[in-house]
Amino acid sequence: MQVCIHRGAKEIGGSCIELISKGKRLIIDLGLPLDADRNDKKYLPDISGLDGNDDSLLAILISHPHLDHFGLLAHISNKIPVIMGEDARRILTQAAPFLPGNWPIPTNGLNLKSETSIELGPFKVTPYLMDHSGYDAYSLMIEADGKRLFYSGDFRMHGRKAKLTEKLIANPPKNIDVLLLEGSSLGRLKSHESFPSETNIEKKLVDIFKNAKGITLVHTSSQNIDRIVSIFRACKKTDKTLVIDLYTAVILEATGNENIPQSYWPKIKLYIPQKQRIQIKNKKWFDLLKRHSKNRVFIEDLQEISAQYVLLFRPLHIRDLEKAGLQKDAIYVYSQWEGYWEQDSFSFLREWLAINNIPKVSIHTSGHASVQDLKRFATALKPAKIVPIHTFMPETYSKLFDNVQLHVDGEYWEV
Length: 415
Ligand SMILES: [Zn+2]
Description:
- With 415 residues, the protein is an alpha/beta fold.
- Helix content is 27%, strand content 21%.
- The chain has 14 helices and 19 strands.
- The protein has helices at residues 67-70, 86-95, 162-170, 198-210, 225-237, 246-254, 274-283, 286-291, 299-304, 318-323, 338-341, 347-355, 371-381, 397-400; strands at 2-7, 16-21, 24-28, 57-61, 82-85, 111-112, 118-120, 123-130, 137-144, 147-151, 178-182, 216-219, 241-244, 268-270, 309-313, 331-334, 360-362, 385-389, 412-414.
- The chain has a 7-stranded mixed sheet. The chain has a 6-stranded mixed sheet with strand order 7-8-9-10-11-18.
- A hairpin with a 2-residue loop joins strand 2 and strand 3 (24-28).
- Helix 2 runs antiparallel to helix 6 (246-254) and helix 4 (198-210) crosses helix 5.
- The model has no long low-confidence stretch (mean pLDDT 96).
- The site of zinc ion (ZN) has 6 residues, from loops.
């Protein structure tokens, strides 16, 4: 089996790997690079068949629904099967109409099911459901030509689904020839440090919520389902009501998991910000709105006792909050990657918080394994060779792991 990392050998984001066996090919992930200013076709790696005109390309496998792993799907032929988790596919499909730009909707292709192998020409693919901040995330074992390659995907061991990664470590597949191992935390975290767990995040949120004098604005990704569960659990512990918008309600429904908070649950309310009301009217989403309106509230309801509400905040709420005077006594909890905060797109929000004297608290943990957990993972899988991917620090791997081999972007090599 031949392998080429087209992007990701020395960077986080834009992951893309091509596998070749007996003249047939698979692609794993087709992500948008982190530094791409917008989702442009020019970032597509130079791989034959992305236009749908080369039968040797059997399928594209998407490990999980994060933009840096699937973003460039928008620019390929829809004739190519896209294989991914069923829930992840539903999330992408339901999210697309809400989001600006060219969001792909992969409709054609098999669904991954954890620990169920699929045969694709000369390849056998076995997915393993993993703990990650993205929902329905898989690592993938690919077998061909008597060789075994294991792609870790993005994963961690301190989230709400840590048991999944622990299960794999307790009973790992044997005889792995190559482990393509993500290393997002290298360079961001010292080797002895660990990330807070989601349970830890929940505790920190409880402390903030219970002392709130006004509305609490929690700014996170609506697709970080683990985090939304942490926020909701913290709400329940402090007798607060969680307020979501229609986009979040739709994403939560798209998980297909009734154990995850839903718009119709007690202690959850739906509030439609003015900007979203216009979107609903223009796109005639009246049935969708009706389906999620069981617990709908209006701005007057939020004004009444604002301290009892935790709003899953997005910048589109700003106008509504101002109109209702809700910025008074509000507290803002920033609950996503700190790297976004300094970006230009956040300057309006930074100014708004400053003008209104709204304090900012950061409560977040990573979606990626700590260095110690990467080591545990590698030790359990006992690969003959480790190849770095999804990292800015490939050269540090050899200090942490045995049998490291570096391959650069665009190089074709044998497993
Ligand atoms: Zn990810």
